[in-house]
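Let's practice the habit of predicting before peeking. Look at the sequence and jot down your guess about where helices and strands might fall. Then scroll down.
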Amino acid sequence: MKIIILFLLSSFAYAQQCEPEKFRVVFSNGELTTPKQAFTAMNELALNLGDNYADEGITYDLAYNYSDAAFKQLLQTSDQHLWYMNLAKLIYNWKYQVNTPELNQHVEKYREAILQGQKVLVVSHSQGNFYTNLAQRMLTNQKPAITIESFGTFGIATPTVRVGNNDAYLTNHLDIITLIPSSLEANWTLRKIDSGKVIDNIGSIPAHNFTQTYLSPYYDIKPEIITKIKQELSKLTDPPQVVKSGSITVTLTWNLTTKNDVDLHIFEPNQTHVYFENKIGKSGYLDVDNTQGFGPEHYYTDCKKLQTGEYLVGIKYYSDSFVPARPVMTTVTISTPGSTRTFITELNKTETNSNLIKLAKIIIGRTGDPINGRLKYQIISLATD
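Done guessing? Here is the structure:
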């Protein structure tokens, strides 16, 4: 058995929210962006786009891309402009490694949202366009299939040769990214919003900044970005709601079909065991139980019945039509408000002897008042390599 744990960022105290909005707009950051800066960019995007489009609500999310190696290199260089150009060339030539665990985390985030009936638009800045393009390919080819027409992209300052399936993008004429070979050409002349005067003196690196340039109230590109994003939202198709949503959602998929069955098991705080023979718990439900391969199997909590305490998440290799049973690669995605973690686990039925594999526990508490305080979520891994 081999387990890979993938995680993005965790935040703990949130108001209770169960029903997802129809749209999920995700910000995918570029290189040299700290988590704090990425969250700031996402929030700026939310403030400018608003909480609904065409009378349908919008949820905002972050697909964070780490660039620790880039930060270390920046600290060691005396010429930031040259360093930035070299980094951008490496990205363009695919010599700067795209972090695969992050990419898988992003894909599972998008998949989970679409399975819940949401339309997903990823707004990608700079390096984030590489992640988003790859994520779209993975979503297109992975099983179980999703409604790919419910997934869209919008690129900003992109070094890639395309954005999604030739989706829209905006790059201003001063942006340093335009110097990267074969990057999409600049398609916007940056002007002051009050006078209409062309901007020519802010520098090619500052011109690349998402919040201080592309969403700046002083330049005319921000209104165009919001208009373009809305146009991309209008193109998305409503997906069927395959699974329901709750404060906790757990989704299991696997890579084999032809009567290959892996089962999801949840133990709720009162020790109710929710699985294929007992689909209704005190807090939640196993609303999808797949026995033919690929999945999904899915558990969600009912907001009106949510218990505080500890939820245990496990999986079990139940059966395979092949003899001997084939090794199977499973993916379990656990989502709570503000946090998503993905566990990729290879199971061998002979080795595991059909034992339950405990992956994680989810702890729900309250901040301040133990009865009326804001809910606090924490996902803790129980898996070992």
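How did you do? The longest strand covers residues 309-320.
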